[in-house]
Sequence to fold (269 residues):
Amino acid sequence: GLTIVAFGTSTPEFAVSLSSALKGTADMAVGNIVGSNIFNAMFIIGIAALVLPITTTRAMVKKDIPFAIVASIILLALCYDRSLSRWDAIILLVVLCVFMYNTLRAAKAGKLDEQAPEVHTMATWKAIAWFAVGLGGLVYGSNLFVDAATNIARTLGMSDAVIGLTIVAGGTSLPELATSVVAARKGNSAIAIGNVVGSNVLNILIILGLTGLISPMENLQIQPLDYGLMLFSMVLLWLFSHTKYRIERWEGALLVVLYVAYTGYLIVQ
Fold:
């Protein structure tokens, strides 16, 4: 959930952010990541918890979610001057290496997944083939949705920042939504929440890291409120996960309501 699934479901964000940065629409590139992380932590976890309360693990509460909070703080600090330089991007990629090292080391030690759910075995070649087919479908479907929605939004006079924070963010996060809801229905809570936390970390560290390294971004119009809500959403997710290591349905409902209120505020503004 923290690595393979998160990487797969974050691929649309990478495609959209890199394409946006290269086209000179930096607000959409960064807005896509900030908006996606808010969408992931509030709407996706909220919906998944409404489907079935999510059981978290000690490792998730003690290490993984706090790391996502740290990544959010780092992004907020780096973008405080309304830019993301190549040096900023390098810092993000260095932090990514630290995250992957710690995650893989914990997995190798067998301490990461305390639930250890039973899974159906599948031949390696078949698993790789289905992973590739599913990933291709996710990227194609998400980009199709984003392109169409963006065209509609621009005809309504919405700014690149708002389009990135709302429509594009929601579109590129559809894979996370599908994956987490399916995992929640199957009782695989570790994958449901691990997918979201891992995606949020990768969105910031690898996607903005690589995007900023290839195409530095200037004059960002993303507001402090947006960065602040991204950070707040992860803190709230940590608080909910910390209580009895479980996210209840009412907590999921609160997350969804908060996200809808935020989106409504952005559109009205």
Summary: The first helix runs from residue 4 to 22.
